[in-house]
Design a protein that fits this description.
Length: 335
């Protein structure tokens, strides 16, 4: 698989103090448009993401030894075959449930686990090397293809490790007693913590990944519980769509409007305000008093429309309306 590293190769990236973590902020640029067009859309997105986000790995001195690539790949492949679903006769559905339901315990043995993580970080290391070599310049077609090859190898190695450890999240979510926290939220948060743990785990420290991952998963459960508690403090009851918006004020306004219209009809019917025939007709047309309640908004007339119907100008209709309203208001106030 590709060119092997020489013994004189230097570690790539910047080393975080007190850690084997290597980080690199890429300064390389995307390849030419012609090279990009020849790539599948997923590969183009992968290149853009890598150049935007940067890269990191957990460095190990064995990465710079001459047979590193071949030795690490074969060791990791041997671990996968010894613990893989095909060798165990289990059905691989990419969910991790085959490990959870295995009668022999499933999972990855400690020695195989170390090989898996060494191979994962070696793939990530090769990505760093390519980005470091192409610093400040546009990726060549060969460098872009090599970078994508190691990105795919990284994704495959990470997927195998995550899939084998998914039961950790399920088992811990079942054991965790978080008041009023949905089980699905725990699993979702735990899965994210597991993904981060895979990227941050340093197998050189000597302890098992499950120990490191369980601590990370428990911390994520604490975060989701705290977040839920804060939410409950602001919203102490369950969400009910029927209570999201009350129409009480609108209903009260509609009742008052109906009562006012009915009172106005009574006044006009008995001519209690002593309106002239023209004044009464203007009021009835303007406010659609002869229509059904639900039709008033649709059938009321404008001043211009009323004027056209009775043969008067818009301004004259306004004067008649104001005079009629003044008589009605005086009756209601002094009635």
């Amino acid at each position: 698989m590709g060119t092997e590293l020489g013994a004189t190769t230097l570690p790539a990236g910047q080393r975080a103090e007190g850690s084997n973590l290597r980080k690199l902020r890429p300064t390389a640029k995307l390849p030419t448009a012609a090279v990009l067009e020849a790539l599948p859309p997923t590969d183009r997105r992968t290149l853009r993401r890598r150049l935007a986000e940067g890269a990191e790995c957990m460095f190990d001195p064995c990465f710079v030894e001459a047979p590193a690539e071949k030795a690490l790949y074969q060791a990791a492949r041997g671990g996968r075959e010894s613990a893989g679903a095909d060798a165990k006769g289990r059905r691989n559905d990419d969910s991790g449930l085959d490990w959870l339901t295995a009668t022999d315990g499933g999972g990855i043995k400690a020695g195989d686990e170390r090989h898996q993580f060494l191979w994962l970080n070696y793939c990530r290391y090769r990505v760093l090397r390519i980005l470091e070599e192409q610093a400040g310049q546009r990726l060549s077609a060969r460098a872009a293809m090599e970078l994508l090859r190691w990105e795919h190898a990284t994704a495959q190695a990470r997927e195998e490790i995550v899939r084998a450890n998914v039961p950790l999240v399920l088992a811990m979510a079942k054991r965790t007693r978080a008041a009023r926290v949905d089980f699905a939220d725990l699993v979702s948060e735990g899965n994210l913590a597991l993904l981060r743990a895979v990227d941050k785990f340093d197998c050189a420290r000597g302890y098992k990944f499950s120990t490191y991952a369980c601590r990370a998963i428990l911390k994520s459960f604490s975060r989701v519980a705290a977040r839920t508690a804060r939410y409950r403090g602001h919203f102490p009851v369950e969400f009910d769509p029927t209570l999201e918006k009350s129409d009480h004020a609108e209903q009260k306004r509609n009742v008052a409007e109906d009562e006012s219209v009915e009172a106005l009809r009574t006044i006009l019917g008995n001519n209690l305000a002593e309106l002239s025939d023209v004044e009464e007709r203007v009021i009835r047309l303007r406010f659609a008093l002869d229509g059904a309640p639900e039709e008033r908004a649709l059938h009321n007339k404008t001043l211009e429309q009323v004027g056209a119907m009775i043969g008067l100008t818009k301004e004259r209709v306004r004067q008649i309306q104001n005079k009629a309203l003044a008589k009605l208001r005086d009756l209601l106030e002094n009635g």
